[in-house]
């Protein structure tokens, strides 16, 4: 595949293309709209029909297009910013989802776009015109220098012009004025296909769209940009894909960044006749990474760059790699002249040279690639600048392809008087003087630095010298006391983790391991690029004007294997930034620090590491202004970035605006002595503007001090003087960006004369072809080999990051997390752990003693007082209500002595409380008693009235008898709180053996059936025999079989009134493994099939059959999905309830009354309906709601809880809608799912706040609120509490994980980590069932294996929301007080 063959780079000694990169960035801040490819109906474009979800007719290509490895002849263009090789599904199937799509997709801006009512237009065409093909070729060649011969034969263009986002129609509201313009161009030569995405300035005014079915105004999905192969059709695999954006910031940066050097233009290699694992982005600017489903062939960083909060001063302008390092002829002065108006053109200024001088051989074709064949986008030739009439040339002409040198438009002339100059006249400039080296007289002891005790041999020579002289302007002399010898045994951790420690006679020293370099304390991988972050502050006089700035950002990027160093300083005030242009030594420090080393020489980092002080004193001539610059290195951060602080003080000459500074290549001598380096030199620089060109100079004294380890033997052969050759020097300032930039290329070596005819090995002058993350190993003559730097892998010419965390090649111990970094990794301890001394092992953090938990407090007993912990060992005590005292001693308060009861009532004092009961002859709650006139009441009515009066007592669980119209006891009695039912005789006494548990079919009470009806069943005969055996009345703990109306065994059987229960089959035999413990009810399935014939219900309601089933919400419907065990009975699924005009989201079930409850975000209501035949829906809450979503039912306390994601509230009410109250209304952003544990009295809910998602808990009355989970979650949509396993589980649409934890937040574990887009979840038996917006269905997951087991996709394909499980019984257990949070 010619487009990706490894081609050699021309090795020239003249101006490199790295100069081109800053110049490219000096053009307009982003692509001008007129610089898009020509489009419009006059160019033959077809116009897509207006609408919200339109698709073009098939476009049959004259020449097929390769996408990935496949060949396509048809294309479709969609409204929603997408191109495909097949017709699109409905937009609800793809427009609101992350990549990948289920179909082939090329998406320059995938979002919910609507062109209705003239809001923009979508144009498309196939094109073979030379103008379009030529411009496409130049873009591709600029982004893929190795595809220098790419000549497209056809192109396909799609342009979205001034299109708007879909918006809900609101009365009186005008449509948004935010409109987007972008373009996609597909170019192919028959064997390789490339895509260009273009985003002009101000072309992206909205960055994402709101899902139509989110029903939450705060949810906006960022646009997706990328490519999908779309091969996968099932749940378990995905085809390859390439995604460029994931957040709004990354979308915003599309028009500000680029992967081929022109902001707003992006290029990708998308298909080939040769194998292509995935889409490959252009590689100029080191912005060429993105998230992809399969590994790419090289190391990229698009996603990281796009995710950053990008400013125009971003250092990514300088992040270059090996594909940029094409060398161009010319001189810096010529290229930089007039850079205030820069256009990237390639004109014919290339000197024709023999092939061996200007080209290298392609290792695949053995053909020479001439320098003139490597092209970049000729924007000047393609889009003419505005003329005086404000028009542009519509037809882009061809450009001379034999040229490669950049040309510049002539800047506007300086004002005619021409009298404004940096200096009125030039004066004598002192010549360069060499400072003789200082000779050390004695060694000194240095403090050592952090380490890991390896014993590998030294990879590079090291030396140590002593210092006693006072050198330069820094008077600090490093001296240390060696009286107490330190050894590696106790100090090896002071070395770098890439170093080893060695003991010497007087102490220990650290030395970098093989393939690393530095001073032992700080070691970096050889051959890898490096970064510097820092702050710059200054107090200057620019001329006579004071200028101050504090902590502005400095970033530097260094290509270590060829000596290039790029520095960017942002937001320095304009007068100071303009005046600092000549001071290239600010960035030159990094050139010396990481200079390319010639044999026998070492750069600054090899000696000083990452801790040193650089002092400079600069005197300008002829004005003799003096400025002092101090740069202090403060070590490496966790990602191996060097941290540095810079301070600038003094006076600098004034440089007028729009002047540019030019500095010729120079050489400097550095003199080395113990712990210090000095240099003194003079430099000329020129300031130009238009026809003005003035030359000035300054003299610079430099002093670098650092620490060395003197214990190791010294290397006497190390030269005391080294020469730094600076081949290329650039200084640029952009007033709009407010960024000051320096670029230098450095080599350090012995002092030599200029006339040295000996050929230089490419490793020593940076002309090799190794990857920027590779080391160059010199061979004989000009031969060399390339080896990827430590932490990277490849052949040396192409290297990609090695993920040590994924491969296991890391040293992170238990309870730690490995985090991959470019070329390295780091370890972080999990929450609750901290590093041990080895910095790899994580040990448990011992929590501070809590007197309230360990019992060391002095408070009264727990039933009388509470202990409040205040941190450390401090606490306080407070008596509980009903007690009095200081908290340490609490006594019961006798409320009866305070006469709180009614005079006609009796008061009963209890510890911490009291109760009142009306005396005989009165009825009421004890606080109010009314004379009882019950002479005419029946015994049932009397008992009923008395029980109603007592029911008001806290915790009361009295049974209120049910009477008929004549006042007699109804034969069937049911307890209103427990759910138990039984038969009574005419006197109200329970008939033995008739009691049934909650949720089961009540007993048949009344006259016994006639013998002719049917013979007794096994269950009935067994029950009759046992009752006879028990003497007619069984004890509470004796077993009596429980039968239904037809005589069948009820599936759930229990010992009397106890909580010991089990499941039985149809013959009454116990199902093994189902016997439960108190408080837990097993899940039993029906023992017999349900009857087949039922009365005809109302048209929109289909009652469910008996057994366990799922209910889910879908738009205006509630669906019914039965279970056979845990398997989905998809063929029996049906619609349970249709509510026209509703949008049903949350749903839950009351097992006591067989009622289903739901929230309606369209009607802003909460409603319910019985599952019995002929039941009608009933609205129970119809005010004070905006977007009610999650819903949970407490069947024990007869209470419901819900979330409102617009009002940001959590509320509760009784099941009839009464006694409504707000539990929480603060610290909520997007509350969604809610779940209740009625047995333990806990409430749980999720908040999918994108900035800080969390899961919280409280008691059911809103007390003891706390955060349960707030780490490693994204969009926790679904939440369920499993009463059987007692686990709280959630489904996260952000992390794509299904996870569970104990109610207190401990024991967290992942069940499944590759969900699609879950919305709601419910647990039943050994399975989870969740609704999924990606599949528009119900998906089942096994709890134990975490595997997908099945899915149900309704015929009507739209989003499913809430889901709940309906059991044929109620989970039982003794509820706890609501004030207790587990």
Automatic annotation (TrEMBL):
Q: Where is the Thyroglobulin type-1 domain?
A: 937-1005, 1016-1084
Localization recorded for this chain is:
Secreted, Extracellular space, Extracellular matrix, Basement membrane
Lineage: superkingdom: Eukaryota
Taking every annotated instance into account, which residue ranges of this chain make up the domain NIDO? 108-273
Pfam families xrefs: cEGF (PF12662), EGF_3 (PF12947), EGF_CA (PF07645), G2F (PF07474), Ldl_recept_b (PF00058), NIDO (PF06119), Thyroglobulin_1 (PF00086)
**PANTHER family tied to this protein:** NIDOGEN 2, VITELLOGENIN RECEPTOR-LIKE PROTEIN-RELATED-RELATED
Protein's UniProt name: Nidogen-2
């Amino acid at each position: 595949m010619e487009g990706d063959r490894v081609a050699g780079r021309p090795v020239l000694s003249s101006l490199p293309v790295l100069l081109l990169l800053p110049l490219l960035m000096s053009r307009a801040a982003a692509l001008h709209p007129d610089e898009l490819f020509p489009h419009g109906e006059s160019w033959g474009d077809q116009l897509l029909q207006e609408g919200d979800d339109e698709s073009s007719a098939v476009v049959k290509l004259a020449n097929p297009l390769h996408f990935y490895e496949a060949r396509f002849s048809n294309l479709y263009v969609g409204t929603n910013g997408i191109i495909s090789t097949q017709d699109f599904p409905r937009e609800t199937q793809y427009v609101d989802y992350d990549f990948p799509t289920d179909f082939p997709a090329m998406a320059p801006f995938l979002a919910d776009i609507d062109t209705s009512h003239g809001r923009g237009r979508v144009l498309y065409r196939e094109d073979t015109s030379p103008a379009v093909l030529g411009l496409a070729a130049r873009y591709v060649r600029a982004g893929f220098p190795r595809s220098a011969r790419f000549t497209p034969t056809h192109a396909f263009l799609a342009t979205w012009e001034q299109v708007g986002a879909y918006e809900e129609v609101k009365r009186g509201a005008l449509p948004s004025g935010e409109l987007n313009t972008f373009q996609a161009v597909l170019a192919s030569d028959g064997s390789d296909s490339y895509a260009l995405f273009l985003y002009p300035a101000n072309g992206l005014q909205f960055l994402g769209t709101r899902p139509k079915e989110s029903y939450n105004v705060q949810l906006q999905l960022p646009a997706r940009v990328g490519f999908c192969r779309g091969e996968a059709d099932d749940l378990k695999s995905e085809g390859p894909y390439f995604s460029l954006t994931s957040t709004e910031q990354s979308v915003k940066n599309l028009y500000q960044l680029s992967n081929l050097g022109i902001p707003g233009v992006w290029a990708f290699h998308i298909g080939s006749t040769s194998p292509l694992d995935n889409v490959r982005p252009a590689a100029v600017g080191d912005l060429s990474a993105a998230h992809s489903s399969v590994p790419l062939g090289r190391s990229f960083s698009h996603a990281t760059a796009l995710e950053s909060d990008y400013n125009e001063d971003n250092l990514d302008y300088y992040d270059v790699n090996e594909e940029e390092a094409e060398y161009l002829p010319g001189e810096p002065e010529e290229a930089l002249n007039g850079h205030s108006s820069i256009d990237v053109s390639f004109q014919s200024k290339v000197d024709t040279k023999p092939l061996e001088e200007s080209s290298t051989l392609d290792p695949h074709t053995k053909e020479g690639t001439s320098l003139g064949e490597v092209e970049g986008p000729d924007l000047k030739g393609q889009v003419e600048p505005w003329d005086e009439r404000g028009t542009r040339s519509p037809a882009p002409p061809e450009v001379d392809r034999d040229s490669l040198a950049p040309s510049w438009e002539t800047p506007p002339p300086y004002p005619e008087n021409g009298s404004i100059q940096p200096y009125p006249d030039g004066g004598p400039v002192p010549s360069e003087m060499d400072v003789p080296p200082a000779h050390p007289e004695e060694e000194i002891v240095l403090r050592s630095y952090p380490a890991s005790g390896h014993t590998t041999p030294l990879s590079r020579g090291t030396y140590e010298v002593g210092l006693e002289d006072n050198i330069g302007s820094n008077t600090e002399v490093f001296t240390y006391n060696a009286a107490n010898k330190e050894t590696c045994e106790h100090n090896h951790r002071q070395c770098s983790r890439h170093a080893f420690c060695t003991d010497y006679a007087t102490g220990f020293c650290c030395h970098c391991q093989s393939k690393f370099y530095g001073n032992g304390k700080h070691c970096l991988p050889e051959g890898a690029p490096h970064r510097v972050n820092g702050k710059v502050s200054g107090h200057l006089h620019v001329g006579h004007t004071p200028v101050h700035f504090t902590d502005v950002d400095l970033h530097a990027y260094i290509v270590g294997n060829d000596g290039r160093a790029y520095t960017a300083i942002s937001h320095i005030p304009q007068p100071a930034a303009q005046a600092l242009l000549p001071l290239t030594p600010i960035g030159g420090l990094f050139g010396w620090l990481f200079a390319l080393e010639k044999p026998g020489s070492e750069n600054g980092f090899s000696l000083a590491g990452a801790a040193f002080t650089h002092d400079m004193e600069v005197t300008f001539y002829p004005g003799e202004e003096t400025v002092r610059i101090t740069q202090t290195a403060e070590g490496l951060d966790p990602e191996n970035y060097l941290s540095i602080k810079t301070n600038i003080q003094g006076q600098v000459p004034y440089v007028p605006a729009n002047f540019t500074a030019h500095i010729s290549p120079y050489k400097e001598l550095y003199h080395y002595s113990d712990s210090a380096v000095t240099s003194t030199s003079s430099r000329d620089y020129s300031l130009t503007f238009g026809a003005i060109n003035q030359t000035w100079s300054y003299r610079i004294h430099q002093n670098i001090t650092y620490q060395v380890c003197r214990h190791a033997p010294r290397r006497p052969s190390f030269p005391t003087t080294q020469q730094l050759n600076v081949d290329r020097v650039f200084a640029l300032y952009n007033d709009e960006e407010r960024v000051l930039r320096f670029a230098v290329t450095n080599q350090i070596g012995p002092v030599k004369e200029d006339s040295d005819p000996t050929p230089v090995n490419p490793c020593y002058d940076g002309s090799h072809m190794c990857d920027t993350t590779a080391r160059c190993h010199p061979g004989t003559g000009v031969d060399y080999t390339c080896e990827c730097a430590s932490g990277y892998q490849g052949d040396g010419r192409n290297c990609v990051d090695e993920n040590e965390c994924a491969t296991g090649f890391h040293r992170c111990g238990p309870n730690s997390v490995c985090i991959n970094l470019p070329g390295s990794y780091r370890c972080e301890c999990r929450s609750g752990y901290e590093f041990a001394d080895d910095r790899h092992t994580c040990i448990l953090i011992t929590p501070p003693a809590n007197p309230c938990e360990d019992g060391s407090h002095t408070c009264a007993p727990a039933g009388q007082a509470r202990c409040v912990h205040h941190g450390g060992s401090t606490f306080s005590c407070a008596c509980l209500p009903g007690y009095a005292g200081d908290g340490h001693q609490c006594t019961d308060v006798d409320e009866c002595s305070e006469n709180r009861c009614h005079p006609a009532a009796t008061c009963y004092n209890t510890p911490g409380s009291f109760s009142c009961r009306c005396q005989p002859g009165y009825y009421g709650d004890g606080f109010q008693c009314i004379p009882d006139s019950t002479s005419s009441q029946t015994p049932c009515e009397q008992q009923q009235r008395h029980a109603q009066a007592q029911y008001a007592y806290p915790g009361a669980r009295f049974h209120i008898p049910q009477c008929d119209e004549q006042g007699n006891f109804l034969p069937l009695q049911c307890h209103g709180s427990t759910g138990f039912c039984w038969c009574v005789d005419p006197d109200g006494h329970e008939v033995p053996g008739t009691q049934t548990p909650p949720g089961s079919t009540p007993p048949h009470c009344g006259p016994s059936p006639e013998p002719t009806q049917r013979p007794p069943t096994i269950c009935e005969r067994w029950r009759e025999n046992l009752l006879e055996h028990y003497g007619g009345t069984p004890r509470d703990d004796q077993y009596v079989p429980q039968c239904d109306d037809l005589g069948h065994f009820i599936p759930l059987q229990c010992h009397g009134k106890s909580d010991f229960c089990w499941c039985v089959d149809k013959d009454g035999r116990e199902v093994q493994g189902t016997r439960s413990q108190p408080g837990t009810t097993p899940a039993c399935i029906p023992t017999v099939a349900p009857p087949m014939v039922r009365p005809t219900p109302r048209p929109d309601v289909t009652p469910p059959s008996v057994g366990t089933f799922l209910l889910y919400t879908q738009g205006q419907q509630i669906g019914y999905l039965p279970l056979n065990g845990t398997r989905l009975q998809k063929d029996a699924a049906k619609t349970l309830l249709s509510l026209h005009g509703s949008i049903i989201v949350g749903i839950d079930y009351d097992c006591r009354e067989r009622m289903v409850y739901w929230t309606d975000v369209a009607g802003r209501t909460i409603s319910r309906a019985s599952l019995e035949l002929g039941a009608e829906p009933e609205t129970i809450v119809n005010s004070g709601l905006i977007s009610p979503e999650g819903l949970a039912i407490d069947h024990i306390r007869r209470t419901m809880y819900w979330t409102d994601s617009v009002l940001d509230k959590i509320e509760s009410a009784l099941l009839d809608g009464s006694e409504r109250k707000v539990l929480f209304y603060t610290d909520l952003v997007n509350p969604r799912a809610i779940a209740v544990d009625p047995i333990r009295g806990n409430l749980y809910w999720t908040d999918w706040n994108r900035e800080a998602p969390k899961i919280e808990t409280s008691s059911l009355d809103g007390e003891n609120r706390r955060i349960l989970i707030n780490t490693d979650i994204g969009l926790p949509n679904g939440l369920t509490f499993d009463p059987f396993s007692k686990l709280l589980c959630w489904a996260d649409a952000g992390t794509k994980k299904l996870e569970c934890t104990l109610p207190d937040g401990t024991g967290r574990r992942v069940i499944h980590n590759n969900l699609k887009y879950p919305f709601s979840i419910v647990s039943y038996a050994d399975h989870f069932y969740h609704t999924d917006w990606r599949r528009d269905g119900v998906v089942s997951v096994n709890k134990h294996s975490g595997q997908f087991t099945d899915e149900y996709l309704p015929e009507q394909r739209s989003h499913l929301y809430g889901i709940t499980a309906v059991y044929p019984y109620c989970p039982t257990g003794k509820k706890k007080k609501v004030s207790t949070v587990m």
